[in-house]
What does this fold into?
Amino acid sequence: MALIHCAECGQVISDKAKACQACGAPVTITKYKLPTCPKCGSPDLVAEKTKPSTLVALATGGVNLAAHAGSKNIKHSCKTCGHTWRTN
Ligand SMILES: [Zn+2]
Ligand SMILES: [Zn+2]
It folds into this structure.
């Protein structure tokens, strides 16, 4: 069980409650939304941050554009169907 704050009055309430005990506002859980596989819709995913290829950029003498572009890439792989994809 987690405690959240009522969006209306700020009262600390349980995320299991359907409405705020103080003001009666319905509890809308705005916690992080789990990503799902775009192929099969399964939420059973593995996410890993992919490191920018700084070493490659240095080795080739290139400017680190690739490193900057890839700094926030997250690689997801679906445990259900094996589909892999990236998000920025
Ligand atoms: Zn409230
Ligand atoms: Zn899948």
